[in-house]
């Protein structure tokens, strides 16, 4: 199964001349992005959940086989703090359903101040149908317990692996049949780029932990100056060197 490699978001002005031709209209950026990558993490949905029609419009601009991961609204994760998940999860899925077969995993990024609550997490994950993959990115150390690991494993929910400044931000647990990795900030130059040593390390971790049949989603969130674009392309090259399938535009 493939390793999907892309970036967190696609609407960055300083990507002109890096990913987007200088004269390309912004309304065509997603279409152009989809000609170069097989996945994107839509983190704009965290701030404001678009209508279903917007998701449907995005689907029409993306090729077959593309996967758009969707970051859950902050209303669910930061305002409600996972409590009373029925309505916000239903609203999220109804809107994101406009992506149809282009819908990838849903990311639940939890606030740094939210301490572990296995029952809340399990109740929230229970609201997602089995067909929707969910990745969870906790950011408080209280989440690193056997009980939390068991909840994630029982739901086939991926603990989001994350990197910041070359260091794993969470335990490297395998809690699902698939993987989700976010790379937030590297230490190479120009900042916040990742160098080959760091990229090779993460390639190795994925390859060692997940068999070739497992889907892996990898997103670069170090967007300033187009670092995420360059690093995503390089990461894809390195994964292919390890005989892993990484879809590209030419493959679809």
How does this structure look, described?
Helix 7 (196-209) crosses helix 8. The model has no long low-confidence stretch (mean pLDDT 96). Helix 5 (118-126) links the parallel strand 4 and strand 5. The chain has eight helices and ten strands. It is of the alpha/beta class. The protein has a single domain (3-251), classed as Alpha-Beta Barrel (TIM Barrel). Strands 6-5-4-3-2-1-10-9-7-8 form a ten-stranded mixed beta sheet. The chain is globular and about 50 Å long. Helix content is 31%, strand content 18%.
Could you provide a short overview of the structure?
With 252 residues, the chain is α/β, with parallel strands linked by helices. It is built from 8 helices and 10 strands. The protein has a single domain (3-251), classed as TIM Barrel (Alpha-Beta Barrel).
Kindly list the characteristics that best describe this protein.
252 residues, TIM Barrel, ten-stranded mixed β-sheet
SSE order and pairing:
Blueprint: E1 3-8, H1 29-34, E2 39-42, H2 52-60, E3 67-71, H3 74-79, H4 86-96, E4 103-109, H5 118-126, E5 134-137, H6 146-154, E6 158-159, E7 161-164, E8 167-168, E9 179-185, H7 196-209, E10 216-220, H8 227-241
Parallel strand pairs: 1-2, 1-10, 2-3, 3-4, 4-5, 5-6, 7-9, 9-10
Antiparallel strand pairs: 7-8
Helix pairs in contact: 7-8
């Amino acid at each position: 199964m493939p390793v999907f490699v892309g970036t967190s978001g696609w609407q960055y002005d300083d990507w002109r001349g890096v990913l987007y031709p200088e004269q390309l209209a912004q309304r065509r950026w997603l279409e152009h992005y989809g000609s170069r990558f097989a996945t994107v993490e839509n983190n704009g949905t965290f701030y404001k959940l678009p209508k279903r029609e917007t998701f449907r419009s995005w689907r029409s601009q993306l090729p077959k086989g593309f996967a758009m991961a969707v970051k859950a609204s902050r209303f669910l994760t930061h305002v409600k703090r996972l409590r009373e998940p029925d309505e916000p999860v239903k609203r999220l899925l109804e809107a994101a359903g406009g992506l149809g077969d282009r819908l990838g995993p849903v990311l639940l990024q939890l606030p740094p101040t939210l301490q572990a609550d296995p029952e809340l997490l399990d109740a929230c994950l229970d609201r997602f149908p089995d067909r929707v993959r969910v990745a969870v990115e906790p950011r408080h150390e209280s989440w690193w317990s056997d009980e939390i690991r068991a909840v994630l494993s029982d739901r086939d929910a991926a603990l989001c692996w994350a990197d910041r400044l070359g260091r794993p931000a969470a335990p490297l647990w395998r809690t699902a049949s698939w993987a989700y990795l976010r790379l937030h900030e590297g230490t190479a130059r120009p900042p916040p780029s990742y160098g080959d040593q760091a990229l090779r390390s993460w390639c190795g971790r994925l390859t060692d932990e997940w068999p070739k049949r497992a889907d892996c989603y990898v997103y670069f969130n170090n967007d300033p100056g187009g670092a995420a674009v360059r690093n995503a392309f390089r990461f894809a090259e390195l994964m292919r060197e390890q005989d892993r399938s990484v879809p590209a535009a030419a493959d679809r």
